[in-house]
Specification:
This is Transcriptional regulator. It comes from Robertmurraya siralis. InterPro entries: ComK. It holds the Pfam family ComK. The protein is of the alpha+beta class and 185 residues long. It has one domain. The chain is 35% helix and 26% strand. The protein contains 3 helices and 9 strands, in the order βββααββββββα. The strands form 2 sheets. It has a 6-stranded antiparallel beta sheet with strand order 3-2-1-6-5-4, with helices on both faces. Strands 7-8-9 form a 3-stranded antiparallel beta sheet, with no helix packed on it. A hairpin with a 3-residue loop joins strand 8 and strand 9.
């Protein structure tokens, strides 16, 4: 078992979170959390931490999952935008107790493990972590996450552009309605 002092009672997935991985802790499933500089353990399952973190950023997991399905057409093992800056993908069905969640932005490199069912990823701070996912499936999940991020980024850019032109149009319209242009005599 891991060192007792590493256990934390509350955890919110954040921009330093690299991996949230299930571990057996006694007879229960806990989460081992890899951050950029440290590792901790939470008494909650990875999926529970993902759900709670979605709430912390103003949405539900189910809402984010439905949006992802609609935006990129994924039907299962969908990546999640926890916030506009935090994207995670599952290594298996989220309900599976062996599912880990990976933040794509902290992956520096990856390679096939000793068998076809493991991928070893290198995260920032030069740590190597074996994940229970085939390299092909890992690559597919990584691609889906990048598609989601790109789609959401394009949507945000279009919203900013629309807002800019709407504001510009309102100014022009207001100028055309200037009362000094009319002869009221």
């Amino acid at each position: 078992m891991e060192n007792e002092k590493l256990i934390i009672e509350e955890y919110e997935i954040n921009s330093s979170t690299a991996i949230v991985m299930p571990i057996e802790y006694g007879s229960k499933i806990f989460s081992k959390i890899y951050e950029l500089e440290e590792e901790t353990i939470s008494p909650f399952k990875p999926f529970e931490l993902v759900k709670e973190s979605c709430y912390s950023f103003g949405s539900t997991y189910e809402g984010r999952k439905a949006a992802t399905k609609r935006l990129i057409g994924a039907s299962h093992k969908v990546p999640i935008a926890i916030s506009p800056l935090i994207y995670l993908f599952p290594t298996a069905s989220p309900e599976n107790p062996h599912c880990a969640w990976v933040a794509h932005e902290h992956i520096l490199d990856y390679r096939k493990g000793k068998d076809n069912s493991t991928t070893i990823i290198k995260i920032q701070s030069n740590r190597y972590i074996p994940l229970p996912i085939s390299t092909r499936s890992f690559e597919n999940q990584l691609l889906r996450t990048l598609m989601l991020k790109s789609t959401l980024s394009k949507g945000a850019e279009q919203s900013i552009t629309r807002a800019f032109y709407a504001k510009k149009f309102r100014k022009q319209k207001a100028a055309a309605e200037n009362s000094e242009l009319y002869d009221w005599e």
